[in-house]
Amino acid sequence: MKLPLSWLKELVAIEASADEIAHRLSMAGLVVESIAHKHASFTGVVTAKVLKVEKHPNADRLSLCEVDAGSRGRFKVVCGAPNVRAGMHAALATVGAKLAASEKGLPAHGAPNFDQVEPLTAAVIRGVESRGMLCSERELGISDEHASGILALDNDAPLGANLDDYLALADTILDVEITANRGDCLSILGLAREIAALFEVKLRAPRLHAARSPAANNKIHFDVEIEAPDLCPRYAALAMTGVKIGPSPAWIRRRLELCGMRGLNNVVDATNYVMLELGQPLHAFDFSKIAGGKIIVRRAAQDREFVTLDNATRSLDANDLLIADAEKPLAIGGIMGGLNSEVGATTTSLLLESAYFEPVTIARTGRRLGLSSEARYRFERGIDRAGQVSALIRVAEVIRKIAHGREASTVADLEPRKSDAREIAFELSRIETLLGVAIAPTVVRARLKAIGAHVTPRGKGVLGVVPPSFRPDITEPADLIEEVSRLNGYDEVRAELPPRVAALVPPNPEREFHQGTREVMLGAGMTEATTIAFIAPPDNARFKGIAPTASAVKVTNPLSAELSELRLSLLPGLIAALRFNLNREADSFHNFEIGKVFQREGDFPVERTQLGGISYGPYALASIGAEPVKAGFYSIKGVLEALFESCSADADLGFKPIEAASYPFLHPGRSALIRLKDGPIGYVGELHPAEAMRLGLKEACALFELDLANLISYGFAPRKSIELPPRFPAVRRDLALVLDRNFPADVVIKTIRECGSSLLEAVEIFDVYEGPAVAAGKKSVALACRYRAKDRTLTDEEVNRLHAVLVEQARTRLGAELRQ
What we know:
The protein is an alpha+beta fold.
């Protein structure tokens, strides 16, 4: 928001410098990004009145004008402007004046160097002496306007006054960054309120001068109907007649320009001027183009196309808010008007609109249409809920002054959903608790009143505070504490923690389990990642997560079409991170994420905490001449087995063949379903070759996903203490079993461990054989069994006896044969 100090000082009597104002605003949370100093690009130019215009005796396109510059005298001036006429007030450059504007338009930034500008001299033009020059806006450096002729001033301009003083061309502009919650500061009045409160000076709000009721023969009848009160809880309108469309006075166009807007015509400029002044967006309709004299505020419904003022056709959604008449839409509510009701050169009657639109609907429609406007910017941040009628009165006053309009109706003010004042119970003791700074109650009350709040005692140490209608962001005591603190500057709060009573944090099994999981993953050489929960629908359809039949949760107000659903799986985000790294010449990627996934169960969304991981490329650089260990099914499965062993869940877990139809993104021969007791809790495997090809991956990509909710009950066992190497040697005995080809290897290991005695230290598979030495459909699994005692060296006889018992039990339980 750009704040011209000349405009500000009409509302606040303040003598502080621009730097001091900027510092105080920044310390109060409204950061001033820059300070710009504007300068007049001329000297010696005064206001004057054209008394007489005659044809130049020696030139058809020139006029000889007599002008009155008050105390500075009368002059004969030759002028070629098409708009010069007797009786008009204009800008006169007297002899000796200096014009720093170039022929191409405005001068360079900063104060012009008049030492390098030649002064204006009296000149003889076609045989007639000209003692000055009537100037256009481009010649004065005010704007690039030149074709329409010389600058026309208001008829009340004092004769002989310096033009730069009259137009307030020398000015200082603060560019203030407004946070999303401070829509009240998107106006000159809003910033003036802040400065008045910060500097403890009186605010002089613009006085409203309502016109008398229109005469019976000058009345215009119209109706307003609000069909969507949930989107538009208040709508006010006023009719005006006798309007003469034309250019705005220079002072209005100058102020619009200083605030970053350009002038169009006097009616549109009046609505923009009041919007900048009071913060209430306004719109003017050509009343003759409103069918049936009726305004209907409704949803778009069946109207799916609309041509806006910029002559662009917009595609509408059924829930977009429209301002319509009995036959057609007239405007997209709160964003932009329509070409079919535009105020133009032939307009003589107006219907002025001043409404309150719900911020969410304006933001949603504007974002979807990609349509920005000053009105949308203010509506979606929240405007004054009670400022609609006062803005109408103010804009009508301006139109009366600059466009000669007059009121043709009383103000129609419809409010189907009233906004009741909300009182906040404010305990003063909470200030020191939150800020660590004690503030006197009298100071607290004074600062709250300075922002426009109504303050009432409600008991010992408690105030009843009703925030002003223009501050919808104040909803709880913490907001009031923030207001009290920032009005004196955040630098008053010391950089130290407030005193607090120490207390033990209650145990949180879920947090401890997640931390244990994180440590195992980090220990396995993986890096933690965090990805966003929003996702594109095609990615949700491709990666459905652990539950293949789950339904996605759609986002009502998505950031973009590509992020319109909540994720069913953690993998799409990790895959996007993988591709991001590979595109930057990374040759490996081993990352995991602990995060939420979302799915719909019936009519309600449900969120679950899951662990996902991706492993791609070598784990570490190999020595010269050796192949590095690369990511694959068995490497990622080993990471998960380390996790299960750490939380003592390995005894209840198993890896089962996976159904390719349920998980089409997994390699059908290198994947497995992870089951805990009787239910699936996740999957592990390599990415399907077709999917890897689509993503441009050249090597195997291993991945997994686990539902942590079912694992959390196991917790993590205490960290194992460091033990000395065993004193006594181990004795190894090998065992080869012939089993069905599809018999799971993990079942073999678990059965051997269960059959072994307490002296069985480890069981490892060291060979799997299929070939002519075993029957068709069978495989030979060779296992190494290691026996060790902690207190003695085992004898061969003792080990043979234990191993024989193990072999017989394992063969019987597994239904296996011994390979000879």
